[in-house]
Amino acid sequence: MSRIVLKFGGTSVADPNRIENAADKVQAEVKRGNQVIVVVSAMAGVTNQLVDYCQQIDPGCDAKEYDAVVASGEQVTSGLMALALQKRGLNSRSFSGWQVPMICNDQHGRARIDDIPAENLENCLKKNCVAVVAGFQGITKSGRITTLGRGGSDTTAVALAAAVQADRCDIYTDVDGVYTTDPRMVPLARKLNKVSYEEMLEMAALGAKVLHPRSVELAMAWNVPLQVLSSFNPQIGSDSPGTMIVSEEDIMEKQIVNGVTFTRNEAKITLLSVPDMPGIAASIFAPLGAAGINVDVIVQNVSPDGKTTDMTFTVPKGDAARTKEVLESLEPLKGTQIRVSNDIAKISIVGIGMSSHTGVAQTMFTTLAENKINILAITTSEIKVSVLIDEKFTELAVRELHKAFDLDQKNVG
Ligand code: ADP
Ligand code: ASP
Ligand code: MG
Predict the structure, then answer these.
(1) What is the pTM for the complete model shown?
(2) Domains in the chain, please, with CATH?
(3) Which one of 185, 215, 342, 413 has the lowest number of neighbouring Cβ atoms within 10 Å?
């Protein structure tokens, strides 16, 4: 007997029919003698609708009430899934975040899970009951509902798998695995049979939304065997040729580049004529950090006159307005021009083989140059290179880099 966590994303539970289809998969796993915990997302589109309702009332609304509203979609699906399982003769009940409980810190809207006492779930499993847990939501120590950030139901599933020491965590979604890039943008994208935790973490953090970054981080830290598979294929977990996320040692042939990712979720902030003196970076970035704003790519130009310099950095698009406010309040930036641009994209190439090969960045830059795409900023780490470009070139850049790194599917029509 194995213990498995099955997670179904929004498209996989988009209506009662799809919930029944997902329930069939759960039933098939139970019939094989497995103990099963199910995690569900809100029905497709529901969370967006709830976010929109909050913004209609107040664009800068109280984060605690925002969480109370947007968490509600998952509660509906968890009840419906438990009903579908009961209809199939299974013993099943729903659990909201607070009923598990998924204890989170109080960073509303992007909370982190601190602890999951497993007693309630263990009691349920002991009674041969299928626990259906509402993804995305948790409870703070002070008893407030919180959420884990958009896409966070993946993280609920992996965290639960770690807490109950599950043998496997299957993430059912609307594609049949992790691809070399978003298959909706590049039809020639190739499915990866295996991908390392390290690469998957970079890909997720750099825009491949198929997995929530924190879920990969947790799977890596707790050694949770993680699989991505389609809820629309007839197979169930152990029979599915989905994508396994595995340790680097389990990958024989390490590709130099395994994925191309993109994100349009960042804004570029440019500061013109910043005083060039020791401590200036700290006096800018410390207040942004204190305001909970995550700064990503930072570029500082040389100072031609030794007195002032220009500085560019990126922040999440949703934080751009707040970033401007914080910057405008800073004494050392009096007289500095602050420009905010939302029309940028970050394009990245990721691969564990990159660390031992030269010329990878050069191929990236040449490919972009050949397509007349200007690079606004560059950052690298051992297994990735990212560039900022004008957003309108996103698709062209992704497609051309995918081709240049020989990732296009061969033998296609
Ligand atoms: P769910 O609702 O099941 O959580 P998501 O929409 O969050 O599903 O994630 C699945 C989507 O991720 C796919 O439909 C696909 O368009 C997108 N995606 C982006 N990058 C990749 C990638 N590299 N491989 C697979 N899917 C990707
Ligand atoms: N329903 C949430 C969202 O749309 C969480 C999830 O689906 O993972 O972001
Ligand atoms: Mg998702």
Answers:
(1) 0.93
(2) 3-249 (3.40.1160.10), 260-404 (3.30.2130.10)
(3) 413
